[in-house]
Amino acid sequence: MENGGWERVWNALKDTDYHKAVSMAGDSQKPLIRYNGVNWSAQLYKCERDDGKDCYGFQFLEWTERQGMIQYEAHMNTVLTAIERAFLQLDPQTEVSTEYVNTKTKPKFF
Question: Which residue, among 33, 62, 35, has the nearest Cα to 46 in the 3D structure?
Fold first, then answer.
């Protein structure tokens, strides 16, 4: 993303549907934006890049499962989509990519 300063990103994210779940954390060197949902939490952080473009990372920190299924998965997907839309509004040329994390769940049937 071009010209995506932290304050500009913070202001854009405060205008999303999930603005009530957002809080600023970290410090001026490594700022974070935390999201707290129902039984899940996530964070958005700024990454380091050598090419001069701004880079941000997003990850879910915790979530709950029931019988091997993630609870409130739709809420988690909604906040991720809201963040992507905010970045695309800031810069229509924003590149969004996904890196999947392998997780293993243990369904409890009995």
Answer: 33
